[in-house]
């Protein structure tokens, strides 16, 4: 019997990989192993419209299943705990060994957690899975006092949603402006202004030193000693790649799965594994649109782009041209809808090129003289136009 | 023929679908999404690709 392609991680990256294998003509067996009990679902609404709704259910975020992948073997609710890359096997937490012809690593990220002296848990939340969103939604009632730690996209979106639900929301973050790194000073400051106009409070250049409460959270103590009462505490301080199951193998997992420009995983010597591939948030890869430095890119279009590339490479046996996807992301906070292309965080300057900062607008982002990204509020056709620039 | 439905309460007019299936989706001069409610079977792969890239997961193929 032919050994299956084994995909570890049953989220968007895993699903899109299985679909791409079939689309590019691979007819052999496919097994997808995932530790969540759910069939693949879409994460972005979990901090936005789905969290804002009355009930969070898997149904509302599940990806549609296609006929072409009906024969894929789904092994859900089981975690891969180890691998033997020399002998082409992975082992799950119940001891079952799965042989593979090709291994696709699509295990994504998990939120970083803080450990406090008073490390209580009740009333404390993160947001990555549907279970996280269900638990959080149950607590977000009008008048509830919420502290969000972290002012990245997920923190700011969750803050906006909690505010819409009638909560009193304070965002605590060490930076000077929320979302500074991805958006740059001007756009980030404007977003902060729009959030504040909706009633979200920001305590910047601050962090949380400890939690207050005995059986359940009653507040947080900030690093300047002030105490802030709250009923719910949300940690949104970034993510950590799920690669522990690859430890012990000859593979580079410093800050994500290091892959070459063909998305093949690399040994510590720098040589590529011929049958181990990376897909999605977990991967650190170079993108020659920008430079040769491998980076993790936590944007929603990346799992699908990786999956297309890897699915085609495995199905056709040909690597094709190097992987150079155009990163894109969006964010919805109150009635502000941002769309961006490129890697804005690489920029050392940006400039307003259309519209006005307090209305619809478009910014270009530059590193030196090189355009590395564009972002806009509204003005979709203009922002979409940048895709062509990066396609080159 | 395939039937296409976009949930306009979800759509944020991001225009990602336009790149995948330009015969079916377009942004009009006000940057709002317009689409044809039906398409030839030959468009199915493109429309499926549009379904996949829609950030709001607002596009549905009605079989
Ligand atoms: C709340 C939230 C909002 C977001 N909003 C946006 C947005 O507005 N715009 C945007 O561009 N992006 C957004 N993103 C990012 C986007 O959702 C991710 O880029 C995408 O989910 C990555 O998919 P993935 O398949 O690579 O990884 P993941 O979705 O992380 O999936 C990895 C899967 O593998 C499983 N797994 C891990 N280890 C193992 C193991 N050892 N064995 C078996 N299974 C394992 C995990 O449980 C998980 O199910 C958001 C993410 C979150 C969480
Ligand atoms: S991709 Fe989705 S959200 Fe964007 S315009 Fe098309 S249907 Fe609307």
Give the beta-strand count of chain B: 5
Q: Which chains have the largest interface? A: A-B, 23 and 18 residues
Main sheet makeup of chain B: 3 strands, antiparallel
Name the average pLDDT of chain A: 96
Strand order of the largest sheet of chain B: 4-1-5
* Shape by Cα distribution of chain A: globular
* CATH-derived architecture of the largest domain in chain A: 3-Layer(bba) Sandwich
Describe the protein's architecture and organization:
The complex is a heterodimer of chains A (392) and B (63). Chain A contains 9 helices and 27 strands. With 392 residues, chain A is of the alpha/beta class. Chain A has 3 domains: 184 residues, FAD/NAD(P)-binding domain (3-Layer(bba) Sandwich), CATH 3.50.50.60; 123 residues, FAD/NAD(P)-binding domain (3-Layer(bba) Sandwich), CATH 3.50.50.60; 57 residues, no CATH class. Chain A has a 6-stranded mixed sheet with strand order 3-2-1-7-20-19, with helices on one face. A 5-stranded parallel sheet of chain A has the order 9-16-10-11-12. In chain A, strand 1, helix 1 and strand 2 form a beta-alpha-beta unit. The longest helix of chain A is centred in the C-terminal third of the chain and has 16 residues. The N and C termini of chain A lie far apart (44 Å). By secondary structure, chain B is an alpha+beta fold. Chain B has one domain: Alpha-Beta Plaits (2-Layer Sandwich), CATH 3.30.70.20. Chain B has 2 helices and 5 strands; from the N terminus they run E-H-E-E-E-H-E. In chain B, 38% of the residues are buried. The mean pLDDT of chain B is 94. At the A-B interface, strand 23 and helix 9 of A face helix 1 and helix 2 of B. The site of iron/sulfur cluster has 15 residues of chain B, from helix 1.
Task: Summarize the entry for a quick read.
The complex is a heterodimer of chains A (392) and B (63). By secondary structure, chain A is of the alpha/beta class. Chain A is built from nine helices and 27 strands.
């Amino acid at each position: 019997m032919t050994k299956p392609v084994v995909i570890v991680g049953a989220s968007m990256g895993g699903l899109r990989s299985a679909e791409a294998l079939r689309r590019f003509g691979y007819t052999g067996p496919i097994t997808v192993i995932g530790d969540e009990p759910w069939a693949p679902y879409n994460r972005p609404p979990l901090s936005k419209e789905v969290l804002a709704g009355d009930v969070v259910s898997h149904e509302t975020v599940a990806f549609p299943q296609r006929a072409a992948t009906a024969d894929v073997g789904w092994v859900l609710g089981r975690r891969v705990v180890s691998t033997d890359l020399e002998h082409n096997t992975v082992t799950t937490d119940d001891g079952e060994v799965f042989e593979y012809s090709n291994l696709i690593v699509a295990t994504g990220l998990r939120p970083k957690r803080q450990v406090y002296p008073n490390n209580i848990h009740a009333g404390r939340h993160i947001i990555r899975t549907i279970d996280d969103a269900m638990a959080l939604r149950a607590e977000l009632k009008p008048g509830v006092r919420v502290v969000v730690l972290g002012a990245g996209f997920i923190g700011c979106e969750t803050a906006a949603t909690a505010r819409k639900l009638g909560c009193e929301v304070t965002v605590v973050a060490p930076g000077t402006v929320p979302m500074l790194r991805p958006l740059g000073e001007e756009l980030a400051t404007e977003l902060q202004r729009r959030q504040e106009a909706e009633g979200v409070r920001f305590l910047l250049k601050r962090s949380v030193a400890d939690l207050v409460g005995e059986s359940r959270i009653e507040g947080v103590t900030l690093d300047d000693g002030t105490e802030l009462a709250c009923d719910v505490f949300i940690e949104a301080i970034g993510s950590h790649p799920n690669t522990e199951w690859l430890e012990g193998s000859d593979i580079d997992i410093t800050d994500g799965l290091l892959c070459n420009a063909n998305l093949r995983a690399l040994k510590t010597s720098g040589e590529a594994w011929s049958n181990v591939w990376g897909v999605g948030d977990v991967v650190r890869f170079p993108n020659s649109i920008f430079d040769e430095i491998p980076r993790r890119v936590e944007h929603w279009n990346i799992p699908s782009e990786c999956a297309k590339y890897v699915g085609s490479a495995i199905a056709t046996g040909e690597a094709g041209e190097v992987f150079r996807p155009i990163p894109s992301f969006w964010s919805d906070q109150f009635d502000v809808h941002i769309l961006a292309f490129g890697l804005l965080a690489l920029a050392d300057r940006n400039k307003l090129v259309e519209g006005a900062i307090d209305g619809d607008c478009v910014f270009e982002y530059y590193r030196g003289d090189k355009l590395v990204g564009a972002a806009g509020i509204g003005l979709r056709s203009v922002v979409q136009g940048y895709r062509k620039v990066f396609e080159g | 023929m395939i039937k296409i439905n976009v949930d306009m309460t979800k759509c944020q007019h991001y225009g990602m679908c336009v790149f995948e299936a330009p015969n079916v989706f377009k942004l009009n001069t006000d940057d709002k999404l317009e689409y044809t409610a039906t398409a030839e079977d030959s468009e199915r792969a493109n429309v499926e690709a549009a379904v996949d890239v829609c950030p709001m997961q607002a596009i549905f193929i009605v079989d």
